[in-house]
Amino acid sequence: MMLIGVDPHKSTHTATAVEPDRNREVASIRIDATLEDYRRLLTWAAQWPHRQWAIENAEGLGRHLASWLLARGEEVVDVPSTATARVRQLSRGGGRKNDRVDAAAAACVAALQGDARPLEPEGVADVLALLDERRTNLAQARVRAVNQLHALLRALLAGGASRDLSATKAAALLRSIRPVGQAERIRKELAWDLVAEVRSLDTKLKANAKAMAELVTESASNLTSTPGIGPVTAARIIGRTRTPSRFPSAAAFASYAGVAPIEIASADRARHRLSRSGDRQLNSALHTVAITQIRMPGSLGNTYYKNKIAQGKTPREAQRCLKRRLADHIWRTMIKDERHRNPTGPGGHSGATLTSTAADPTPTVDSSDKSLPRPATADTTTCTTAP
Asked: Where's the Transposase IS116/IS110/IS902 C-terminal domain (predicted)?
């Protein structure tokens, strides 16, 4: 097995082949960051049939090259920049930095230090992330178009249009308007353009939602069995999470989503504050699920929310507690889905092991709250990987 370390930059990449058993540099090449030179790099590497690519910062400057290699069946690992810097400091040369040294250091780290992380080709989660980003942009464009349409209709009609304005309603109002003067005529023409734009955006949003639903079904996700999680929300959660097993516990996932409270120092008693960090899009999805369940009488989320209110929590505090418990449930559900799709786990290792299940739509609720998942400090759900 030949290790090929890559030090990526914005305009150029340097690759160095290293024999891992003897830690000896064999060859090196420098290419431009172009598709033509990507092919030249792959042709150069073909002299070693058994090879592995170790790309420094593969989630940053090396992301495009890593994705390109993975799509062509290459084995790629990500090496953090901190690991290569540590190798340079411990090697001869006083920690001097250049592209060739960095590339060789990345390969050495991947082979000897165990700091490399295997990468996988883009899958359904990546596609859902792209569709979710596109949906966000389409929704924002629709809001802008509707706002502009409202402004024009206020100038054409006394009192303007109702707040729940749609393309159909706007078209009916415009047909009743008989413009007088050039200004009113131009306003009406612009309004018709905006109506056509809103209709086009509505069509694209429907097609986007349909594509999301098909991919969520294809992924065999059980998230949609949870009340309040439809295909669009499930697509956002899957797309933002990507690989749930990268979180060692439900508490880690909750912290990533920004729903885990942060303890702050206090002289009289322990206090917590709301986390302002984490993935805000994922946090928004959890908020949507929590609000939906709160508005569903008889649901487990509604019962849990009412129990928290009865314990003296404010509505906002009870809502935050529900979001935290929903994060636990969603993580467990995704871990189970991932285990069913890939029983052996990435790289042939055993998959995640759960000590509790996610059979219920939300954590079971009773009057004593004893059957709810415990807070992060007492979370017994673990995700382990066998050696």
From this structure: 221-305
